[in-house]
Amino acid sequence: MSSFDRSPVLAVLRELARTPPALPRRPVPFAVPLAAFVAVAAVLAGWAPRLLGDPDTLWHVRFGLSILDSGRLPQVDSWSWTMAGAPWIAKEWLSQVLFALAFRLAGWSGVVILAIATLAAAMAVLTHEAAARLGAIGAAVVFYVVGMLIAGHVLARPHLLAWLPMVVWTVALTRAAEAPRAPSALLLPVMVIWANLHGSFLLGLALVPVFAVEAVLRGEPAARRRLAFGWTAFLAASLTASLIHPYGLDALRAAVSVLRLGAGTASIGEWAPTDFSTIGPMEMILLGGIAALGWFGARLAPVRLATALGLAHMALAHMRHLPVFGLVGAVVLVEPVARALGATGLGLRSWRPP
Known about the structure:
With 354 residues, the chain is mainly alpha-helical. The protein contains 14 helices and no strands.
């Protein structure tokens, strides 16, 4: 063994990279995600007017109606006064068409029902994943915490329709990384839908190499090259799937350009940093999470820790990313939380890692 192999630096790096086997999932009764779906629908049914409280909803519906009436997608801005005739694309065209169809079917009630059903489905998928690790009680806690983070952003806008593919995509990637194996090609249609709904599909692409690293670290040494190749191929396929869009590469460029608005976002409320001048959900969850890590002595695998920190940074930098921190962060952290609790579920048979 060389002196490098015996070096303390290498020993530290090996320890940091150590990723324990994932905890097994438990069967989840259908009643658990169904209860989550019904709970979201029931709460938002009484909150319906607030889903239409953002003026952006009006023009998303109007753009969708225009696409349906004309049978074509816009290439120039024909709606604004100052930029009339300038190049412009409706990169979120699928969300706009879905809202327009809902509006034609049932008016503004249809728009609200579409938004509620989509969010309820996303929360049902998330609750199922949480229950598989934490049991029904733990899943209820996750449901409540995520609800706190997304509450201020529950609006009938394209970002809400994107939450369902966001959760499905993240769950599938975490399961593949924990197996470990490359994700199935059957997941690619989710990326196609997501890319046509909202620009947040960029996050989905960014998560692929993140979980690829975790999969390789979890894999046996002899299987790591195969895993790396499989995940690289899936990343290439995911990028290709994101380009299956009427605007093609222009839609990808438009989504990236939003991330480079810089000072242009200063006057937009949802792009403001999260406000800590008063106690809010983000502060309570961050402080509670830090306290829980200390109390339970939890240790996150390096990839999960880096991902959680990255999501937290996004939420702190721009309050519009609070739902992303909640929805994606919950999926990322549910397995480490279950491990920290020393069981796969609250109220289920105890299981401790070797």
